[in-house]
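Me: Here is a favour to ask of a fellow structure person. Could you put it straight underneath, so I can go through it closely?

Assistant:
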Amino acid sequence: MRLWLESAVAGTPSWCLYNAVLSVLRATSALIISLLGVSMHGACVSAAGGRLNSRQRFLGSIVVAWALVPVPGRPQDLSRVEQLYEEAQSARTRGDFATAERLYIEVIRRAPELANAYHNLGIVYFMQRKYEGAAEVLEQAIRLDSKLGPAHAMLGLAYYELYRPEKAAKELQAALRLNPSDTNVLIYLGKAELQERDYKAAAKTFEKVAALKPRDPEILYDLSLAYMKLMLESIGRLGEAAPGSHQFWLLLAQDAEARGDEEAAIRNYQQALRVKPDVIGAHYGLGSAYAKIGKYDDAAQEFKKELQISPDDWLALWKLGELALRTDPDQARQYLARAVSLDPDFPQAVLAYGRALARAGKTEKAMEQFQRVVTLAPEEDSVHYHLAHAFRRLGREEEARKELTRFEELAKKKDERTQQMARRLIEMTRAAQPLADEPEPGFSPSRDPTHH
Protein backbone atom coordinates (compact mmCIF):
# COMPACT_ATOMS: atom_id res chain seq x y z
CA MET A 1 0.00 0.00 0.00
CA ARG A 2 2.82 2.44 0.88
CA LEU A 3 4.31 2.37 -2.63
CA TRP A 4 0.89 3.13 -4.05
CA LEU A 5 0.40 6.04 -1.62
CA GLU A 6 3.81 7.45 -2.44
CA SER A 7 2.96 7.39 -6.13
CA ALA A 8 -0.32 9.26 -5.51
CA VAL A 9 1.30 12.64 -4.88
CA ALA A 10 -1.02 15.62 -5.32
CA GLY A 11 0.19 18.00 -8.01
CA THR A 12 1.82 21.34 -7.37
CA PRO A 13 -0.70 24.23 -7.62
CA SER A 14 -0.69 26.34 -10.76
CA TRP A 15 0.67 29.55 -9.27
CA CYS A 16 1.25 31.16 -12.66
CA LEU A 17 -2.33 30.59 -13.76
CA TYR A 18 -3.57 32.05 -10.48
CA ASN A 19 -1.51 35.22 -10.98
CA ALA A 20 -2.66 35.60 -14.57
CA VAL A 21 -6.34 35.30 -13.67
CA LEU A 22 -5.88 37.80 -10.81
CA SER A 23 -4.22 40.34 -13.15
CA VAL A 24 -7.02 40.06 -15.71
CA LEU A 25 -9.58 40.48 -12.94
CA ARG A 26 -7.96 43.72 -11.68
CA ALA A 27 -7.50 45.16 -15.18
CA THR A 28 -11.13 44.46 -16.12
CA SER A 29 -12.34 46.07 -12.91
CA ALA A 30 -10.28 49.21 -13.50
CA LEU A 31 -11.59 49.53 -17.07
CA ILE A 32 -15.21 49.29 -16.01
CA ILE A 33 -14.65 51.79 -13.20
CA SER A 34 -13.10 54.32 -15.59
CA LEU A 35 -15.92 53.91 -18.09
CA LEU A 36 -18.59 54.41 -15.46
CA GLY A 37 -16.76 57.23 -13.77
CA VAL A 38 -17.03 55.50 -10.41
CA SER A 39 -14.77 57.07 -7.83
CA MET A 40 -12.63 54.67 -5.87
CA HIS A 41 -13.72 56.68 -2.85
CA GLY A 42 -17.38 55.98 -3.54
CA ALA A 43 -18.53 59.26 -5.22
CA CYS A 44 -20.95 58.46 -8.04
CA VAL A 45 -20.44 61.04 -10.80
CA SER A 46 -20.52 60.65 -14.57
CA ALA A 47 -17.58 61.26 -16.84
CA ALA A 48 -19.27 64.50 -17.93
CA GLY A 49 -19.71 65.59 -14.31
CA GLY A 50 -23.42 64.65 -14.01
CA ARG A 51 -25.03 62.43 -11.40
CA LEU A 52 -25.35 58.66 -12.17
CA ASN A 53 -28.73 56.99 -12.32
CA SER A 54 -29.68 54.22 -9.84
CA ARG A 55 -28.73 51.35 -12.22
CA GLN A 56 -25.27 52.84 -12.79
CA ARG A 57 -24.78 53.36 -9.06
CA PHE A 58 -25.74 49.70 -8.38
CA LEU A 59 -23.37 48.33 -11.05
CA GLY A 60 -20.62 50.61 -9.86
CA SER A 61 -20.90 49.42 -6.30
CA ILE A 62 -20.56 45.79 -7.40
CA VAL A 63 -17.45 46.50 -9.45
CA VAL A 64 -15.84 48.41 -6.61
CA ALA A 65 -16.51 45.54 -4.27
CA TRP A 66 -15.12 43.05 -6.86
CA ALA A 67 -11.92 45.03 -7.22
CA LEU A 68 -11.29 45.87 -3.60
CA VAL A 69 -12.43 42.85 -1.63
CA PRO A 70 -9.79 40.04 -1.59
CA VAL A 71 -10.66 36.73 -3.30
CA PRO A 72 -11.48 34.20 -0.51
CA GLY A 73 -8.41 32.19 0.37
CA ARG A 74 -6.14 34.15 -1.95
CA PRO A 75 -2.47 33.71 -0.87
CA GLN A 76 -1.06 36.96 0.52
CA ASP A 77 2.45 35.95 -0.54
CA LEU A 78 2.37 33.49 -3.42
CA SER A 79 6.13 32.90 -3.59
CA ARG A 80 6.30 32.10 0.13
CA VAL A 81 3.33 29.72 -0.06
CA GLU A 82 4.86 27.98 -3.06
CA GLN A 83 8.16 27.61 -1.20
CA LEU A 84 6.42 26.15 1.87
CA TYR A 85 4.46 23.74 -0.30
CA GLU A 86 7.59 22.46 -2.02
CA GLU A 87 9.35 22.03 1.34
CA ALA A 88 6.36 20.07 2.64
CA GLN A 89 6.42 17.83 -0.43
CA SER A 90 10.12 17.13 0.05
CA ALA A 91 9.66 16.34 3.74
CA ARG A 92 6.81 13.97 2.97
CA THR A 93 8.82 12.23 0.25
CA ARG A 94 11.75 11.57 2.56
CA GLY A 95 9.44 10.29 5.33
CA ASP A 96 9.74 13.27 7.68
CA PHE A 97 6.02 13.35 8.38
CA ALA A 98 6.17 15.65 11.41
CA THR A 99 7.87 18.38 9.37
CA ALA A 100 5.58 17.79 6.39
CA GLU A 101 2.52 18.05 8.65
CA ARG A 102 3.69 21.37 10.12
CA LEU A 103 4.47 22.83 6.68
CA TYR A 104 1.19 21.73 5.06
CA ILE A 105 -0.73 23.28 7.97
CA GLU A 106 1.13 26.55 7.41
CA VAL A 107 0.36 26.41 3.68
CA ILE A 108 -3.33 25.92 4.51
CA ARG A 109 -3.24 28.86 6.97
CA ARG A 110 -1.88 31.11 4.23
CA ALA A 111 -3.94 29.61 1.36
CA PRO A 112 -7.09 28.02 2.85
CA GLU A 113 -8.64 27.31 -0.57
CA LEU A 114 -5.75 25.15 -1.80
CA ALA A 115 -7.26 21.66 -2.21
CA ASN A 116 -3.94 19.95 -2.94
CA ALA A 117 -2.54 21.03 0.42
CA TYR A 118 -5.41 19.33 2.27
CA HIS A 119 -4.98 16.23 0.11
CA ASN A 120 -1.29 15.93 0.88
CA LEU A 121 -1.84 16.64 4.58
CA GLY A 122 -4.37 13.78 4.49
CA ILE A 123 -1.70 11.48 3.06
CA VAL A 124 0.70 12.51 5.84
CA TYR A 125 -1.92 11.83 8.51
CA PHE A 126 -2.74 8.47 6.91
CA MET A 127 0.91 7.41 6.85
CA GLN A 128 1.06 8.21 10.58
CA ARG A 129 -2.13 6.15 11.17
CA LYS A 130 -4.03 9.31 12.15
CA TYR A 131 -7.06 8.13 10.23
CA GLU A 132 -9.61 10.49 11.81
CA GLY A 133 -7.44 13.50 11.02
CA ALA A 134 -6.84 12.18 7.50
CA ALA A 135 -10.57 11.81 6.88
CA GLU A 136 -11.27 15.35 8.12
CA VAL A 137 -8.76 17.13 5.87
CA LEU A 138 -9.50 14.89 2.85
CA GLU A 139 -13.18 15.79 3.14
CA GLN A 140 -12.15 19.46 2.98
CA ALA A 141 -10.00 18.77 -0.10
CA ILE A 142 -13.00 17.23 -1.84
CA ARG A 143 -15.27 20.11 -0.82
CA LEU A 144 -12.79 22.45 -2.55
CA ASP A 145 -12.29 20.19 -5.59
CA SER A 146 -14.83 17.39 -6.07
CA LYS A 147 -12.94 16.05 -9.10
CA LEU A 148 -9.74 15.38 -7.17
CA GLY A 149 -9.75 11.60 -7.71
CA PRO A 150 -6.74 10.70 -5.53
CA ALA A 151 -8.35 12.55 -2.59
CA HIS A 152 -11.49 10.39 -2.97
CA ALA A 153 -9.27 7.29 -3.02
CA MET A 154 -7.35 8.36 0.09
CA LEU A 155 -10.58 9.23 1.91
CA GLY A 156 -11.92 5.78 1.01
CA LEU A 157 -8.79 4.18 2.50
CA ALA A 158 -9.10 6.27 5.65
CA TYR A 159 -12.73 5.22 6.12
CA TYR A 160 -11.75 1.58 5.46
CA GLU A 161 -9.15 1.75 8.23
CA LEU A 162 -11.73 3.38 10.50
CA TYR A 163 -14.09 0.47 9.75
CA ARG A 164 -16.72 2.67 8.11
CA PRO A 165 -17.27 0.48 5.04
CA GLU A 166 -20.29 2.30 3.58
CA LYS A 167 -18.44 5.62 3.44
CA ALA A 168 -15.29 3.85 2.20
CA ALA A 169 -17.16 2.19 -0.67
CA LYS A 170 -18.82 5.49 -1.64
CA GLU A 171 -15.49 7.35 -1.88
CA LEU A 172 -13.70 4.51 -3.67
CA GLN A 173 -16.51 4.32 -6.22
CA ALA A 174 -16.17 8.09 -6.77
CA ALA A 175 -12.43 7.63 -7.31
CA LEU A 176 -13.09 4.89 -9.87
CA ARG A 177 -15.53 7.07 -11.77
CA LEU A 178 -12.75 9.63 -12.12
CA ASN A 179 -10.07 7.02 -12.90
CA PRO A 180 -11.59 3.63 -13.90
CA SER A 181 -8.17 2.05 -14.55
CA ASP A 182 -6.89 2.32 -10.95
CA THR A 183 -6.60 -1.35 -9.93
CA ASN A 184 -5.56 -0.52 -6.36
CA VAL A 185 -8.75 1.44 -5.78
CA LEU A 186 -10.73 -1.49 -7.21
CA ILE A 187 -9.01 -3.89 -4.78
CA TYR A 188 -9.85 -1.74 -1.78
CA LEU A 189 -13.41 -1.30 -2.99
CA GLY A 190 -13.72 -5.10 -2.85
CA LYS A 191 -12.21 -5.13 0.65
CA ALA A 192 -14.63 -2.43 1.80
CA GLU A 193 -17.54 -4.44 0.38
CA LEU A 194 -16.32 -7.49 2.31
CA GLN A 195 -16.12 -5.31 5.41
CA GLU A 196 -19.67 -4.12 4.71
CA ARG A 197 -20.75 -7.78 4.33
CA ASP A 198 -22.01 -7.10 0.82
CA TYR A 199 -20.52 -10.37 -0.37
CA LYS A 200 -22.26 -10.40 -3.73
CA ALA A 201 -20.80 -6.98 -4.62
CA ALA A 202 -17.38 -8.03 -3.29
CA ALA A 203 -17.37 -11.17 -5.43
CA LYS A 204 -18.26 -9.11 -8.50
CA THR A 205 -15.47 -6.60 -7.75
CA PHE A 206 -12.82 -9.26 -7.12
CA GLU A 207 -13.84 -11.09 -10.31
CA LYS A 208 -12.87 -7.90 -12.18
CA VAL A 209 -9.54 -7.71 -10.33
CA ALA A 210 -8.87 -11.44 -10.87
CA ALA A 211 -9.33 -10.93 -14.62
CA LEU A 212 -6.49 -8.37 -14.45
CA LYS A 213 -4.34 -10.38 -11.98
CA PRO A 214 -5.27 -14.03 -12.60
CA ARG A 215 -2.36 -15.50 -10.60
CA ASP A 216 -2.23 -13.12 -7.66
CA PRO A 217 -2.74 -15.28 -4.51
CA GLU A 218 -4.00 -12.35 -2.42
CA ILE A 219 -6.70 -11.53 -4.99
CA LEU A 220 -7.69 -15.18 -5.36
CA TYR A 221 -7.92 -15.44 -1.57
CA ASP A 222 -10.24 -12.41 -1.37
CA LEU A 223 -12.35 -13.74 -4.23
CA SER A 224 -12.62 -17.16 -2.56
CA LEU A 225 -13.47 -15.51 0.75
CA ALA A 226 -16.31 -13.55 -0.85
CA TYR A 227 -17.80 -16.70 -2.39
CA MET A 228 -17.31 -18.68 0.82
CA LYS A 229 -19.14 -15.99 2.78
CA LEU A 230 -21.95 -16.07 0.20
CA MET A 231 -22.17 -19.85 0.57
CA LEU A 232 -22.27 -19.70 4.36
CA GLU A 233 -24.86 -16.94 4.19
CA SER A 234 -27.02 -19.13 1.96
CA ILE A 235 -26.58 -22.15 4.24
CA GLY A 236 -27.59 -19.99 7.18
CA ARG A 237 -30.74 -18.87 5.39
CA LEU A 238 -31.57 -22.48 4.49
CA GLY A 239 -30.98 -23.53 8.10
CA GLU A 240 -33.36 -20.84 9.33
CA ALA A 241 -36.03 -21.63 6.74
CA ALA A 242 -35.86 -25.45 6.92
CA PRO A 243 -33.45 -26.60 9.65
CA GLY A 244 -34.46 -30.26 9.38
CA SER A 245 -34.65 -30.51 5.59
CA HIS A 246 -32.66 -33.04 3.58
CA GLN A 247 -31.24 -30.13 1.53
CA PHE A 248 -29.70 -28.67 4.69
CA TRP A 249 -28.01 -31.97 5.58
CA LEU A 250 -26.79 -32.43 2.00
CA LEU A 251 -25.14 -29.00 2.06
CA LEU A 252 -23.43 -29.80 5.35
CA ALA A 253 -22.24 -33.12 3.92
CA GLN A 254 -20.81 -31.52 0.79
CA ASP A 255 -19.11 -28.83 2.87
CA ALA A 256 -17.51 -31.54 5.04
CA GLU A 257 -16.33 -33.36 1.88
CA ALA A 258 -14.74 -30.16 0.56
CA ARG A 259 -12.85 -29.83 3.85
CA GLY A 260 -11.71 -33.47 3.70
CA ASP A 261 -13.74 -34.45 6.79
CA GLU A 262 -15.14 -37.73 5.44
CA GLU A 263 -16.53 -38.90 8.80
CA ALA A 264 -18.65 -35.74 9.12
CA ALA A 265 -19.72 -36.11 5.48
CA ILE A 266 -20.88 -39.68 6.15
CA ARG A 267 -22.94 -38.61 9.19
CA ASN A 268 -24.60 -35.76 7.29
CA TYR A 269 -25.39 -37.90 4.21
CA GLN A 270 -26.94 -40.50 6.49
CA GLN A 271 -29.04 -37.81 8.18
CA ALA A 272 -30.22 -36.53 4.77
CA LEU A 273 -31.25 -40.08 3.82
CA ARG A 274 -33.16 -40.51 7.07
CA VAL A 275 -35.18 -37.39 6.24
CA LYS A 276 -35.68 -38.35 2.56
CA PRO A 277 -34.60 -41.93 1.68
CA ASP A 278 -35.03 -41.52 -2.07
CA VAL A 279 -33.12 -38.25 -2.50
CA ILE A 280 -31.04 -38.39 -5.68
CA GLY A 281 -27.28 -38.12 -5.16
CA ALA A 282 -27.12 -38.85 -1.43
CA HIS A 283 -26.18 -42.53 -1.80
CA TYR A 284 -23.59 -41.56 -4.39
CA GLY A 285 -22.08 -39.00 -2.03
CA LEU A 286 -22.14 -41.46 0.86
CA GLY A 287 -20.47 -44.13 -1.31
CA SER A 288 -17.75 -41.70 -2.38
CA ALA A 289 -17.03 -40.81 1.26
CA TYR A 290 -16.81 -44.51 2.20
CA ALA A 291 -14.43 -45.16 -0.71
CA LYS A 292 -12.11 -42.34 0.40
CA ILE A 293 -11.59 -43.97 3.80
CA GLY A 294 -11.12 -47.45 2.32
CA LYS A 295 -14.57 -48.92 3.11
CA TYR A 296 -14.99 -50.30 -0.41
CA ASP A 297 -17.75 -52.84 0.31
CA ASP A 298 -19.88 -50.17 1.99
CA ALA A 299 -19.14 -47.84 -0.91
CA ALA A 300 -20.25 -50.42 -3.49
CA GLN A 301 -23.53 -50.97 -1.62
CA GLU A 302 -24.27 -47.23 -1.66
CA PHE A 303 -23.57 -46.94 -5.38
CA LYS A 304 -25.95 -49.82 -6.05
CA LYS A 305 -28.63 -48.11 -3.95
CA GLU A 306 -28.11 -44.99 -6.05
CA LEU A 307 -28.75 -47.05 -9.19
CA GLN A 308 -31.99 -48.36 -7.70
CA ILE A 309 -33.21 -44.76 -7.43
CA SER A 310 -31.67 -43.61 -10.72
CA PRO A 311 -30.82 -46.56 -13.04
CA ASP A 312 -29.06 -44.40 -15.64
CA ASP A 313 -26.74 -42.66 -13.19
CA TRP A 314 -23.45 -42.87 -15.12
CA LEU A 315 -21.46 -41.52 -12.16
CA ALA A 316 -22.59 -44.41 -9.92
CA LEU A 317 -21.85 -46.86 -12.75
CA TRP A 318 -18.37 -45.42 -13.17
CA LYS A 319 -17.61 -45.66 -9.43
CA LEU A 320 -18.90 -49.25 -9.30
CA GLY A 321 -16.71 -50.09 -12.28
CA GLU A 322 -13.64 -48.55 -10.60
CA LEU A 323 -14.29 -50.61 -7.45
CA ALA A 324 -14.93 -53.81 -9.39
CA LEU A 325 -11.62 -53.45 -11.28
CA ARG A 326 -9.95 -54.52 -8.03
CA THR A 327 -11.79 -57.84 -7.75
CA ASP A 328 -14.00 -58.61 -10.77
CA PRO A 329 -12.71 -57.19 -14.10
CA ASP A 330 -15.55 -58.74 -16.12
CA GLN A 331 -18.20 -57.07 -13.94
CA ALA A 332 -16.20 -53.85 -14.04
CA ARG A 333 -16.23 -53.93 -17.85
CA GLN A 334 -20.02 -54.18 -17.88
CA TYR A 335 -20.50 -51.28 -15.50
CA LEU A 336 -17.99 -49.11 -17.36
CA ALA A 337 -19.30 -49.93 -20.85
CA ARG A 338 -22.74 -48.76 -19.73
CA ALA A 339 -21.29 -45.62 -18.11
CA VAL A 340 -19.44 -44.71 -21.32
CA SER A 341 -22.55 -45.34 -23.43
CA LEU A 342 -24.50 -42.90 -21.22
CA ASP A 343 -21.77 -40.23 -21.29
CA PRO A 344 -19.13 -40.84 -23.99
CA ASP A 345 -17.25 -37.64 -23.15
CA PHE A 346 -16.54 -38.35 -19.48
CA PRO A 347 -12.75 -39.05 -19.55
CA GLN A 348 -12.56 -40.75 -16.14
CA ALA A 349 -15.04 -43.44 -17.20
CA VAL A 350 -13.43 -43.81 -20.65
CA LEU A 351 -9.99 -44.35 -19.05
CA ALA A 352 -11.37 -46.90 -16.58
CA TYR A 353 -13.14 -48.73 -19.42
CA GLY A 354 -9.88 -48.86 -21.39
CA ARG A 355 -8.10 -50.35 -18.36
CA ALA A 356 -10.83 -52.98 -18.00
CA LEU A 357 -10.51 -53.91 -21.69
CA ALA A 358 -6.72 -54.12 -21.37
CA ARG A 359 -7.01 -56.49 -18.40
CA ALA A 360 -9.34 -58.67 -20.45
CA GLY A 361 -6.67 -58.90 -23.19
CA LYS A 362 -8.59 -56.66 -25.64
CA THR A 363 -5.55 -54.48 -26.32
CA GLU A 364 -6.61 -52.78 -29.54
CA LYS A 365 -10.05 -51.89 -28.17
CA ALA A 366 -8.37 -50.61 -25.01
CA MET A 367 -6.09 -48.40 -27.13
CA GLU A 368 -9.14 -46.84 -28.80
CA GLN A 369 -10.41 -45.76 -25.40
CA PHE A 370 -6.99 -44.49 -24.31
CA GLN A 371 -6.66 -42.41 -27.48
CA ARG A 372 -10.06 -40.87 -26.76
CA VAL A 373 -8.87 -39.89 -23.29
CA VAL A 374 -5.87 -38.10 -24.82
CA THR A 375 -8.34 -36.01 -26.84
CA LEU A 376 -10.78 -35.43 -23.97
CA ALA A 377 -8.17 -34.68 -21.28
CA PRO A 378 -4.77 -33.72 -22.75
CA GLU A 379 -3.38 -32.94 -19.27
CA GLU A 380 -3.88 -36.51 -17.97
CA ASP A 381 -0.53 -38.25 -17.56
CA SER A 382 -1.53 -41.83 -16.60
CA VAL A 383 -3.20 -42.56 -19.95
CA HIS A 384 0.20 -42.37 -21.67
CA TYR A 385 1.51 -45.02 -19.29
CA HIS A 386 -1.35 -47.33 -20.31
CA LEU A 387 -0.77 -46.54 -23.99
CA ALA A 388 2.92 -47.41 -23.62
CA HIS A 389 2.02 -50.86 -22.23
CA ALA A 390 -0.55 -51.41 -24.97
CA PHE A 391 2.01 -50.57 -27.67
CA ARG A 392 4.53 -52.91 -26.01
CA ARG A 393 2.04 -55.80 -26.02
CA LEU A 394 1.60 -55.21 -29.73
CA GLY A 395 5.39 -55.17 -30.26
CA ARG A 396 5.52 -51.49 -31.19
CA GLU A 397 8.53 -50.54 -29.06
CA GLU A 398 9.29 -47.13 -30.58
CA GLU A 399 5.74 -45.89 -29.97
CA ALA A 400 5.87 -47.37 -26.46
CA ARG A 401 9.03 -45.36 -25.68
CA LYS A 402 7.40 -42.14 -26.94
CA GLU A 403 4.39 -42.69 -24.69
CA LEU A 404 6.61 -43.32 -21.66
CA THR A 405 8.48 -40.10 -22.38
CA ARG A 406 5.21 -38.21 -22.61
CA PHE A 407 4.06 -39.81 -19.34
CA GLU A 408 7.22 -38.61 -17.62
CA GLU A 409 6.91 -35.07 -19.05
CA LEU A 410 3.35 -34.64 -17.83
CA ALA A 411 4.09 -36.21 -14.43
CA LYS A 412 6.83 -33.62 -13.85
CA LYS A 413 4.18 -30.91 -13.88
CA LYS A 414 2.43 -32.51 -10.93
CA ASP A 415 3.32 -33.02 -7.27
CA GLU A 416 6.43 -34.83 -6.01
CA ARG A 417 4.47 -37.98 -5.10
CA THR A 418 3.23 -38.34 -8.69
CA GLN A 419 6.73 -37.76 -10.03
CA GLN A 420 8.23 -40.43 -7.76
CA MET A 421 5.62 -42.99 -8.79
CA ALA A 422 6.18 -42.13 -12.45
CA ARG A 423 9.96 -42.63 -12.12
CA ARG A 424 9.48 -45.96 -10.35
CA LEU A 425 7.00 -47.25 -12.93
CA ILE A 426 9.20 -46.17 -15.84
CA GLU A 427 12.23 -47.93 -14.33
CA MET A 428 10.23 -51.14 -13.84
CA THR A 429 8.85 -50.93 -17.37
CA ARG A 430 12.28 -50.47 -18.91
CA ALA A 431 13.56 -53.44 -16.90
CA ALA A 432 10.57 -55.54 -18.05
CA GLN A 433 9.62 -56.28 -14.42
CA PRO A 434 6.04 -57.21 -13.46
CA LEU A 435 4.05 -54.28 -12.10
CA ALA A 436 2.39 -54.41 -8.70
CA ASP A 437 0.16 -51.37 -9.38
CA GLU A 438 -0.77 -48.73 -11.90
CA PRO A 439 -0.48 -44.94 -11.77
CA GLU A 440 -3.51 -43.28 -10.26
CA PRO A 441 -5.48 -41.06 -12.63
CA GLY A 442 -4.82 -37.42 -11.83
CA PHE A 443 -7.41 -35.46 -13.75
CA SER A 444 -7.57 -31.71 -13.34
CA PRO A 445 -9.78 -30.67 -10.41
CA SER A 446 -12.00 -28.84 -12.89
CA ARG A 447 -12.94 -32.26 -14.26
CA ASP A 448 -14.03 -33.69 -10.92
CA PRO A 449 -17.64 -34.80 -11.34
CA THR A 450 -20.38 -33.32 -9.20
CA HIS A 451 -23.61 -35.18 -8.65
CA HIS A 452 -26.72 -33.05 -9.21
Residues 296 and 323 are 7 Å apart (CA to CA). The domain at 242-311 is CATH 1.25.40.10 (Serine Threonine Protein Phosphatase 5, Tetratricopeptide repeat). The chain has three domains: 1-161, 242-311, 320-452. DSSP finds 23 helices and no strands in the chain.
